[in-house]
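Reading a protein record of the kind used here takes only a little practice. Think of the row as the fold of the chain written in a discrete alphabet. A record is reproduced here so that you can trace the correspondence yourselves:
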Amino acid sequence: MLFSFFINEIIDVMNNSGIRGIQLFPDVTELLLLLFADDVALLSDTVVGLQRQLNILNEFCTESGLTENTENTKIMVYKHGGRLSRHGQWSFNNTWLIVVNTFSYVSVTFTKQLSLSSMAQSQCLKAKRALTILLDSLYKYGVLSHSVYFKMFDTNIKLISVYGS
């Protein structure tokens, strides 16, 4: 709850710091960070740029009295194969952060190759699990009308399968 009061300030601090994010397409605003509830995802196209963002976020948290859970803080480097550069190390508040190959952010699974098929497979697996639970519960309740079944499907399975799209 407290985080939501500071969320706009984080955006302002990042924008005013002169750091760069990533630009997906020409003439499109750069993406510096993604915010959802109490989660922050920083975006940069350089090792140095990401470390600067982490340092700015750390300063902001210190000044605001917020704490970051470094156990849940991960780094993902998007690339098509090859090893990570020896310079590819980042720290937050004097704690080295772990580089991972997959990461789930707001229930969407990202891979280091940005594989859309992996994202879709992950969502389909979650939807299949929910469908199994739905079918088990329907079996216990007996025969329901088609409209009730489809309403339950739309509010559970469909929602999961298209989440993040």
